[in-house]
Specification:
alpha/beta, Rossmann fold, two-stranded antiparallel sheet, 9 strands, elongated, binds adenosine-5'-triphosphate, binds magnesium ion
Length: 305
Amino acid sequence: MTGIPASIDATQALLAGADYVADRGLAATIFLALKMQRPLFLEGEAGVGKTEIAKVLATSLGRPLIRLQCYEGLDIHSAVYEWNVQRQMIEIRLAEAEGRKSSEGLGQDIYSERFLIRRPLLKALQASATGAPPVLLIDELDRTDEPFEAYLLEVLSDFQVTIPELGTIRAAQPPIVIITSNRTREIHDAVKRRCLYYWVDYPDAARELEILRRKAPEASATLTREVVAFVQRLRQADLFKLPGVAETIDWTRALLALDALALDPQTINDTLGVLLKYQDDIARVQGSEAARILQEVRARVAQAA
Ligand SMILES: Nc1ncnc2c1ncn2[C@@H]1O[C@H](COP(=O)(O)OP(=O)(O)OP(=O)(O)O)[C@@H](O)[C@H]1O
Ligand SMILES: [Mg+2]
């Protein structure tokens, strides 16, 4: 286990050590969230590196990563705890067969921790009893419904959950909580107020170049520069879904698989499906538009060199 970083610069360096290239604003917010033990709420478009932050923090701080993937209809049974009804039934039958206990004593027995199935939120609260606080990733919170959000409030403000049959379980130390949202709907203010907030934006060209140098180091310098310039230019186009960092990395790897040393119109057309995921967007860019952007990109890369 590593202690939390001592400054914003140290936070940026810690993330870079795990090949995550964060701008200063993000590093500052992460640093503060760690220092103040507050949950971090990250919003942004798809594929900009929100989920990755939790993974990288867990790895670089040497903490377990506990992940709660949100979806519509997510309930307490899947997110917090469930009683192991089958084992409870067996216990009851055994006790009956052995004539062991009064029904009151048995009731207490079968609602003990032994029969509790821990789901991610409860696991995250209890983990620090035996080790360092884990990283709890609550991924894509915007997919759940509001009752679940309301439930999260208790967890996030007091780091505790209440199980009627058992009582309140409180974290010995708060976990490092990262919440992400793709903003398909607004998250309630009450949840946001308990968190530090950061909007994870598309990276600028310099940062995206650095990301590619780390994530696709085999690519030639020319290819990397052209890919970044091309993607950055595409993000200004009127498309239904702009490519994220994930797509930039995937595209570079696809180009490498085709042994490309630089971009050319044919290769771009052959690989557009790695970069764009909507047929309308592909149709708009394919052919003459791709060739035109490529010319612009080459001129810009030549100028920068
Ligand atoms: N700043 C960055 N430095 C290094 N790698 C990055 C960065 N941003 C994104 N990536 C890479 O991009 C990929 C996608 O990141 P991630 O899955 O975290 O995106 P996301 O924002 O959670 O997307 P979604 O909303 O679709 O879940 C990962 O492979 C990650 O390594
Ligand atoms: Mg994600």
